Predict the structure.
Amino acid sequence: MLWQDDFCRVVLVEDTPGYPGFCRVILNRHAREMTDLDRHERDRLMSAVWKTEQAVRDVLRPDKINLASLGNVVPHLHWHVVPRFRHDPHFPNPIWGEARRAAEPAQDTHPGEALRKALEQAA
Amino acid sequence: MLWQDDFCRVVLVEDTPGYPGFCRVILNRHAREMTDLDRHERDRLMSAVWKTEQAVRDVLRPDKINLASLGNVVPHLHWHVVPRFRHDPHFPNPIWGEARRAAEPAQDTHPGEALRKALEQAA
């Protein structure tokens, strides 16, 4: 867990090798689609997504950010915020296809604490 | 082209078999990331995304909506708004992986005109 309030939470995704700093922004209450939220809730959730994107950019300096809200398996609103690098397993493809190269051996990349601080400061 | 103003445009994506009603919302000016936009621009672009999502839901009644801003190949801000159906080629996986089943033969599904009307009314 990187950050939370009574509306949503930001977690570090640690089950995807090759993607340090991959974050997920998860709505606390249950809803399926962004257009199921009222305007205020939509703005509030996206504000958390932008703060997470900015924190990920500041901490990891990725070549590109990927954002996605899919939820086909778990239809509960959550946003993937994925720092992408030219050397990552799927670049330039989306991370959900077949890998083009192996994940680099785990480096000393533990961005959790820096992300937690950046999100605290942005809140 | 389904809709446009001086800020962004909504186009129907017709190069992805099995995904009728797949739309793309494209920023007119050049920017790479959402956090490169100011708050007003971010809100304005997302407002077009929500209108597109609502139009796609109203016209196609999908099982799920997928939203994504990737831009690894073309780093120019654009949002994919993808109506997903349990019988589509990749469900429940993201559309960017390997297909799990063939696209259904082209049906009489030409949602362009209905989407255009829905977006006009929402504008």
User: Anything to note?
Assistant: The helical segments of chain B are 39-60, 112-122.
